[in-house]
Amino acid sequence: MGFGNGSYFHEPALPTGSSPKAVATADFNGDHYLDLVVINRRSNMAGIFFGYGNGSFQERKHLYTLDGPYSVVTADFTNDNRIDFCIAETEAKTITVYLNDGKGNFPQTISYSTINHPRNLAIGDFNADNYVDIAMTNTFNHTMTVLLNSGDGNFYAEKFFPTGHTPYSIAVSDFNGDSYLDIVTANNNANYLSLFLGFGDGNFQTEMKIFTHGLLPVVIAVDFNNDNRIDIVTTSRQYRTLIIIYNTC
Ligand SMILES: [Ca+2]
Ligand SMILES: [Ca+2]
Ligand SMILES: [Ca+2]
Ligand SMILES: [Ca+2]
Asked: Which residues have CB atoms below 5 A from the ion given as ligand 1?
């Protein structure tokens, strides 16, 4: 890709294995250089690439996952200052936390059996206990789940919230400025996003519908116009458009 000014992206290609589905970044081995975790849906593998800080990466490390890894998020789930990662394994109906030993090894995993087939993950401390919690979409059940972290990388019982039809993507931010984290899902077979306002204690209001131009697979939350209100970007599969919804709250 060119910028028209003579500069180009350099594109080192890193072999990942079969059907790479998602990627996330963090510094796993504590050398202050960002590393990558890539998950391979068909081969049920996660690959770790250690960064050298100059754009090149060290040979990957392979880790097995349960069946059907679909999405991955990085966070310190155990508050030991070592960045862990969590994978949603759609076919296995699990989410698995890979606990980092501080050197970028993940000798211990904790798998949590979910009631539905989890798809996409998002993180946030929804009950303000300083432990990172999980929110996820259950695509085939048209629900969103909140899982509160018990502090050791395991989770308390699932809390379900109905969404629009076929929720795919999920994002977390404080959309109404009350300092409590909220959750939004993009619904792949609906013409609205589902917004869940948080109470700050791990509970959420039922969905508020944000109507837009139909069939919405993707959502991200970011302040685009620097007014300190978090806006929403989504895409319409039906109309082939990118949609920015400015927050006037
Ligand atoms: Ca690193
Ligand atoms: Ca940790
Ligand atoms: Ca928490
Ligand atoms: Ca809020």
From this structure: 27, 29, 31, 33, 35
